[in-house]
User: What shape does this take?
Amino acid sequence: MSDVAERWQSITAELTAECARSGRSADEITLVVVTKFHPASVVTELFNAGARHFGESRHQDAAPKVAELTELDLTWHFVGQIQSNKARAIAQYASVLHSLDRDSVVDALAKIEHRVSGFIELNLTDDPGRGGVDDANAMLTLADRIMSTETIDLLGVMAVAPQEVDPEEAFERVATMSQILIQAHPNAAAISAGMSADWQHAIRHGATHLRIGTSITGKRPSSG
Ligand SMILES: *Cc1c(COP(=O)(O)O)cnc(C)c1O
Assistant: This one.
């Protein structure tokens, strides 16, 4: 078995164990393997090991990779910042968009001809320049705009825990924001949170979608 396949198996085993410890069912968790900067061959190896959900963060890297892999039955997730002029193209291959954070992106997606699923990205940093909405009001306003489209199914909230913050604190904040969103939109109950360094904390705080890269794929061949 390849190193990548072995790491996939060990993460899925750890995930099952962590769910048991947290009183959750592994069936409620979608493990998205983030394959940014890795070639299509890595996706194929992971597919052969059983992975079905894959995530990418840059359209220009993702588009040719997805095109190489059309014969595999994969679900592509887009986890990076979405430029509104790329939103339509991204929605051609990604059926789940984790990083809806602006009116212009929602408006662009409102005009596509099929349905996609989306998360509202929360900004947990103090830097307003980072992707994501800053507070509950902004989240609810964006949620209303999403609900007014006929093309986006709102799944819930997404966040990246800032490196300088205790992940417990970060994911508690995400859980609180999720509760606020659920009060307004009961079906938008999913939480996309948890990466290689902190996914166990995310499980304990209700994450339904994990986005795990390096601890499965290994170090990225190039950074960016
Ligand atoms: C790269 C990336 C991940 C995966 O990060 P790892 O630390 O490699 O697990 C998850 N979410 C987003 C938004 C990313 O850009």
User: Anything to note?
Assistant: The pocket of pyridoxal-5'-phosphate is lined by residues 34, 36, 57, 79-80, 160, 195-197, 211-215 (CB under 6 Å). Strands lie at 30-34, 53-56, 75-78, 94-100, 116-122, 152-159, 190-192, 209-212.
